[in-house]
């Protein structure tokens, strides 16, 4: 049974044991484009990846399953070298009341196949608190320099081509996951000599 076949079994919930860590060569390989129309196996894998993110953000499930909280996951992190990513970014609310009134709890909840950046801002950005990764079990301090705004082309689970314009935290998350499908780790984008260097005009996202 292949790794993907095991991951998509009806009884299987993706957990931290399924996620490979830095040093595994799959994390440095460029993932294969997913064939269209999408196979059932690739559709199910995407759904399982999104399910993992939901579980990781659920206090009860994450404790029960021993999950680290995540907002994004890429197939190569599961040792499946394909261009499949899932993103689940909760919206920030000022109060519980505001959260209850909102129609949508997430600013981004999507599975993307063959996602690629087709346009981006000249302005760079980085998260104030740096980035972490489910495949990296250590803290790597420094600004991870990315594009402040991006336009992404991808295919959805129906095989339809979509275009999405993102900025802020959502843009950072998607760029992190697309990097995974191209064999790039987040710390590759930190200036080794000066990890907290701020270039002219760089946006620091709190």
From TrEMBL:
The active site is at residue 177. Keywords: Hydrolase, Iron, Metal-binding, Protein biosynthesis. It holds the Pfam family Pep_deformylase. It is an enzyme of class 3 (hydrolase). The keyword Ribonucleoprotein does not apply. Its cofactor is Fe(2+). Fe cation binds at residues 133, 176, 180. One of its GO terms (molecular function) is peptide deformylase activity. CDD domains: Pep_deformylase. The keyword Hydrolase applies. GO terms for biological process: translation. PANTHER family: PEPTIDE DEFORMYLASE (PTHR10458), PEPTIDE DEFORMYLASE 2 (PTHR10458:SF8). Removes the formyl group from the N-terminal Met of newly synthesized proteins. Requires at least a dipeptide for an efficient rate of reaction. N-terminal L-methionine is a prerequisite for activity but the enzyme has broad specificity at other positions. Belongs to the polypeptide deformylase family. This is Peptide deformylase. It comes from Pseudolactococcus reticulitermitis. The lineage of its organism: Bacteria, Bacillati, Bacillota, Bacilli, Lactobacillales.
């Amino acid at each position: 049974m292949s790794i993907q076949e095991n991951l998509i079994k009806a009884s299987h919930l993706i957990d931290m044991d399924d996620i490979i860590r830095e040093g595994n060569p799959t994390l440095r390989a460029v993932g294969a484009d997913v064939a269209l129309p999408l196979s059932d196996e690739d559709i199910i894998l995407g759904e399982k990846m999104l399910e993992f993110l939901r579980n990781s953000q659920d206090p009860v499930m994450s404790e029960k399953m021993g999950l680290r909280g995540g907002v994004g996951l890429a197939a190569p992190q599961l040792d499946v070298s394909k261009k499949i990513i899932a993103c689940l970014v909760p919206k920030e609310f000022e109060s519980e009341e505001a959260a209850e009134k909102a129609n949508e709890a997430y600013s981004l909840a999507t599975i993307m196949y063959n996602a690629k950046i087709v346009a981006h801002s000249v302005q760079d950005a980085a998260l104030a608190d740096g980035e972490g990764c489910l495949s990296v079990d250590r803290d790597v301090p420094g600004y991870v320099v990315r594009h402040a705004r991006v336009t992404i082309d991808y295919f959805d689970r129906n095989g339809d081509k979509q275009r999405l314009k993102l900025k802020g935290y959502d843009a950072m998350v998607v760029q992190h996951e697309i990097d995974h499908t191209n064999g790039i780790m987040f710390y590759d984008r930190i200036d080794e000599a000066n990890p907290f260097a701020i270039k002219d005009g760089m946006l620091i996202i709190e």
